[in-house]
Amino acid sequence: MWGSKPTVVERPNPAPTNATMKLSRFAPITTEGSALAYLDIETPSGLILRDCKLMRGPSARLWIAAPSQRQFDRAGNSILDERGKPRYRNFVDFCDRATRDKFAAAVVEAVRREHPEVIA
Predict the structure, then answer these.
(1) Phi-psi map region of 3: left, alpha, beta (phi>0 left; psi -120 to 50 alpha)
(2) Using 50, 70 and 90 to split pLDDT, how confident is the model at 2?
(3) Are 115 and 27 within 8 A, CB to CB?
């Protein structure tokens, strides 16, 4: 009715690689505070996450803040959480903490490899 079915070509699964995260943008933040740099991150699958932040926590642990946007009420005031801090809407989330930690570790490794001076 609509023509013949296309031929399906079976391809073997690609061999596993040692693919790593890449930083397509790295912009150090020079002000005091916990944010160290803005990052655009390219994952091994080709997904690009823009405007992430490299952060240093109170125990000096490095972590990655995914892109987010501050939330406002209809009057334009910041919506605050139970601690009185501005609430943010995350654009990217992870299914669980282990996945998030694995992602962060891979990105921090990319920073160590490409910009070791920031971590020193």
Answers:
(1) left
(2) low
(3) no
CB atoms within 10 A of CB 51: 15
105, two tokens: 């570790």
| Per-residue model confidence (pLDDT) at position 52 | 95
Contact 62, 56 (CB under 8 A): yes
Q: How far apart are CA 114 and CA 83, in angstroms?
A: 37
Task: Quote the longest CA-to-CA distance of the chain.
Answer: 68
The average pLDDT across 53-81 equals 93
Nearest to 107 by CA among 23, 16, 32, 9: 23
List C-alpha distances in Å: 76 to 62, 68, 72, 89, 106. Answer: 33, 17, 5, 15, 37
Enumerate domains of the chain plus CATH numbers.
22-119 (3.30.1120)
Closest CA to 104 of 29, 16, 25, 43: 43
Q: Are 107 and 22 in contact (CB under 8 A)?
A: no
Rounded to two decimals, the pTM is 0.73
